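User: Sequence in, structure out. Go.
Assistant: Echoing your sequence, followed by the structure tokens.
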Amino acid sequence: MRLRIACLLTLAVIAACAGSDTRDRLLVSAAASLTDAFRDIESAFETDHPDVDVVLNLGATSALREQILEGAPVDVFASANTANMGAVVDAGAVDGEPSIFAINRLEIAVPTSNPAGVTGLSDFARDELLIGLCAEAVPCGDFARQALANGGVTPRIDTNEPDVRALLTKIEAGELDAAIVYATDVLSASGSVEGVAIPDEDNVPAEYPIAVLRDAPNPEVAKAFVAFVHSNAGREILATYGFGPR
């Protein structure tokens, strides 16, 4: 109940802040791993549509899903996995069909210079290391656990973070020896963390679907935003941040 109230209050504040703007407001709920790419997409879309104010609601995909299912006034949902989008579809909250717009991959993140000497997934079973994953309900946490299972590793987890950006922050601060994030997150850290590759046979590709919501306050603009994400300009922005094409 507290989470529900907090989520709805957050969205109410967003709506209030945008209320004095005469432009059409478009609320886009997007997975935390899309933060940098979608901020650039927001800017590019607003340049092409000066009468539109895009408001990004960024966070854990599972939390965004719950906001939508509780009736939050969201126009577009961009999920980090198909399961959370599927729950929104099953609830009848999507207008039309979701479409996959990007692919991501997992990577091990370690502090600069890799002081613990992490070389792969097997290190996640070392008792002496401080290990972090995203929470199990979050896509990056679910995928990480699948990758560890694929590698036959039982991890010694010290922290389960609410979203991938919170996990990355702990690596940047040197509070953890290793974590499993997305390859795009390592790239976005711009050298403040280092990446260790996860073999293809163990890795779990993440498909990102996007959809206009059935009760979108601004459905036509929402459709235009989704089209922009799929456009050459949108794909170029996504590629800049390491996202693969569909």
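User: And one key feature?
Assistant: Strands lie at 24-31, 52-59, 76-78, 94-104, 106-111, 131-134, 159-161, 178-182, 193-196, 206-213.
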